[in-house]
Every structure is written in C-alpha cells, then in structure tokens.
Amino acid sequence: MTIWSPALPDSDAPIYVRVADALERDVRTGTLITGSRLPTHRDLARDLGITPVTVTRAYAEAARRGLVEASTGRGTFVRTSRREPIPATDIDLATNVVNIPLPVPSPAVLRRAAETLDANYSHGSGSERHRAAGAAWIGRHTDPSQVIVTAGTQHAIFIALAATTRPGDSVFTESVTYHGTKAAAALLNIKLVPLPMDRYGLLPDAFARAARARTAKVLYTIPSLHNPTGIVMPEKRRRELAAVAEKFGITLIEDDTYSFLLEKTPPPIATFAPDRTLFMSGLGKSIASGMRIGYVAAPEALLSRAQSALAASVLFTSPLLAEIAASWIEDGTAARIVAQKRAEAALRNRVARRILGDRAAKTDPRSSHLWVELPRRWSPDAFTEEARKRRIRVASASSFAVGDDVPRAIRLSIGAPASVAELEMALNVVMGIDEEREEAVV
Predict the structure, then answer these.
(1) Is residue 435 a part of any domain in this protein?
(2) Residue 80: its pLDDT value, please?
C-alpha cells in the first residue's frame, strides 16, 4: 500500500472535494503513479484527522473524475485505463463561438452611441448610417435601402421566415440544420421539410424533385460553413440551387452567419438569384456574442413584409448596439476582430485534428465546429449524456435533425473553450469516452 499523506489545497470547497483535488494533483504530478494502491479509508481518515465517511466521499469523487478504481477486497487504486481525468469545471463544446479578447469601444464611439438613445428612429429598418454599415458588411454592392438592421441573426431568421410564409406553410432545408431555425419555425407554426445532403451540401436534384411537387415555396440554407456539418458548398452547387429556385419560383433564405471565417468564399447563392433571395449576416458570431446586431438584405418584392415583421417583433433594433456595430465596421475594428477569429479557429482546428484524427476529416478545416460521426455502439443522445457526466458539453445530432432521421453524430464547437489547453483536455475526454466503451465491448 502506498504511503500517501497529502497536503490539502487551501480552498472553501468541502473537505472531501479538497482530498479529491489533492489526489488529482498528485496523480498529474507523478507523486502517485498508475496502479498505486491508496491508503484504506480508515488509515487516511486517521492521518488527515477526518472521518472515514469523508474519505469514502473523496474516493467516490476521485472515481467520478476517472482518477481511481476500487476492487472489492483489494482496495482503491490509481486508475490504469486510458480514461482522461474529468475536468474540475464544465467545459463547453456545445456553444458555437470563437472566443478571443475583445476591444472596449472608444469614448468617442460610446459618446456617439449614447447620442442615438434620444434619436427619433423614424425608419424602423435602421438609420441610414446603420443600414449603410450593414450593406458594407454584407458586401456585393448591396443597396443600403434594402437592408434591415435586426437584433442579431436569430432575429433575422425569424423575420425572414415571417416575411416569406404563413402559419401552416412548409419550408425546405438541409436534413440537419441550425437548431435556432427549428425553434423559430415551430413558433411560427411552420413545418421544415428535410432535403438530403452529400459532402458538398444540399443536393440540387432532390431540391428540384421537391420543388416540382410543390410541397414548399421557400428554401432555408446555410451554404458557407454549414451548421452543424461545417460544409462549404462549392460555387457550381450554388448556381444549380439558384437555377432550381428560379425555375420553380422558390424563395431563398440564405444564412451567411459563418462565412466570416473564410478568407475566400464562393459567391453567395444570392449572387445568382438576387430577386428571390433574403440574405442574412450578423455580428454575434463574427464579433461578440453580446453584439446582437444582424442584417437582412431583402429583394424589393419582400422588403415591406420583412420590415413589417421587424416592426411586429421589436419595433426597431437597439440604436446603441447598431451604432457601436457601425463604428467598428467603418473604422476597421470589426475586420481586425474577424482576422483574429480566423487565426484562432485555424489554430484550434489543428489541435482538434491532431487529437480526433480522421473523425474530424469531413469538416472544413476553417470551421468553428466539427461534425463528428459516432460508432454504431453509440446513439448521439447517449454519447452526449456520457460526456455531460464527465463535465463536457457537446451537441447531439438530435438538436439539428429535421424530421425523425437522426444521424449518429455530435457537433463539437472548438471555439468555445476558454483556452487551447482547455480544448485539448475536453477533446481527450471525448476520445476517451469511446475508447472506454470499446474496451468494455471487447
């Protein structure tokens, strides 16, 4: 039996947690080596001046973290399997962001923003300056008069769906899609109709067959770094989808939330079908989660309905945030933040691919999230729950599936952890989960 008399960390945590923390520290530093037999509950209790019940709780917590395993009649041992220690706090691989340090708005920007609070916002779609900033952000020589400033891209999705459908209508979309779009459709009493995908995105032939059957009159799609799969649709595929939409009179809703991570991206579908496409972008992902500003570029035929949807939902978007967004777009701050996020996403992709190997190969290496297929022994919900037990949050494919056909996959958002070291820890735990199940099956 190993002689182990730990110095407990000084913290406000319960004593059993401090014992488990000390055990984890000594395992990681090599003070306790793999296979070491730990003191009995009674011996360690006497040595530390605590009760055997407290030691029992401490060993149970250490087992929960994957540090030790008990053998009836033999004692408690430092774990010998490949299981990674459970993190001390939750690590988020579910929220799709790219975290970087952000600048504080300058006093001049804040002063101009404050001045907007008493402004008469006579144009519900946004002031002329704020719409011009949105047009500049979207690019493609977008006409500011056709831009609507929204309270983020989730709000933009709601407005686009409300402007193009009536309750009870159906909307085509990819077989897996952004869960926020599913929520907006449910609120508006709209049915989403799934269309099959391949490694290039939505299949034009399947879209054409569905459009010919007239089961829906609108298509919602995410062609650039699709959420959740991370696919970047090539230009040829975009042209084909636009042609189908033109032929059958389908209105397009193009969600461009993630293209900021692509230094060079294929032309938007809106380029090929400008008169029937509502195109949306925003700053929540590209700049900061709290920057709840989005932009919808609507064709003339749909502009008034989109403006009415804006007025019915929020009347008008916060001029304060819209002013900060406009200032950062104009002075280059937004572009600098985007460049930093691209670099951070690229770094984290390299780390993720080193750990996950071929499991990450199907997702574009510039994406902030990875679509990871699971072995047959796992359902996505079961894997998600197993990860949660180890304090890792991942997103199950069931959150994104449209209809009853749920892929055996999870989405890992590699930008969310606070640091690359935290990301490495989380991904190693995720890999360890499947290795454990594989060992158990064998």
Answers:
(1) yes
(2) 61
The answer to whether 79 and 44 are in contact (CB under 8 A) is no
Residue holding tokens 């290496």? Answer: 365
Containing 202, the helix (H) or strand (E) segment is strand 201-202
Q: How confident is the model at residue 435 (pLDDT cuts 50, 70, 90)?
A: low
Q: Are residues 172 and 135 in the same domain?
A: yes
Residue 28 or residue 195, greater confidence: 195
Burial of 182 (0-12, 13-18, 19+ CB in 10 A): middle
**Residue 410 bridge partners (DSSP):** 372, 396
What is the mean pLDDT of the segment spanning 60-85? 77
Alpha-carbon span 136 to 328, nearest angstrom: 12
Q: Where are the alpha helices (DSSP H) in 166-318?
A: 179-187, 204-212, 235-248, 300-313
Residue 295 belongs to some domain of the structure: yes
Q: What are phi and psi of 137, to 5 degrees?
A: -65, -45
Residue 86 domain-assigned? no
The number of domains in the chain is: 3
Q: Which domain holds residue 435?
A: 91-97+335-441
- Res. 104 pLDDT band, cuts 50 70 90: confident
Would you state the pLDDT for residue 329?
97
Do 368 and 411 reside in the same domain of the chain? yes
d(Cα 298, Cα 321) in Å, to the nearest integer?
A: 21
Confidence of residue 121 (pLDDT cuts 50, 70, 90): low
Contact in structure between 35 and 80 (CB atoms under 8 Å): yes
Euclidean distance between CA atoms 136 and 327, whole angstroms? 12
Q: Binning pLDDT at 50, 70 and 90, where does residue 441 land?
A: very low
Three-class DSSP category at 22: helix
Q: Does residue 358 share a domain with residue 264? A: no
pLDDT reading at 181 higher than 60: yes
**Cα–Cα distance list, 200 to 32, 356, 371 (Å):** 50, 22, 14
Cβ-in-10-Å burial (0-12, 13-18, 19+) of 251 comes to: buried
- Return the structure tokens found at 52: 């055997």
Residue 284 belongs to a domain: yes
Omega prior to 52 cis, within 30 of 0: no
pLDDT confidence tier of residue 122, bands split at 50, 70 and 90: low
Do residue 140 and residue 48 come from a single domain? Answer: no
pTM for the structure as a whole: 0.80
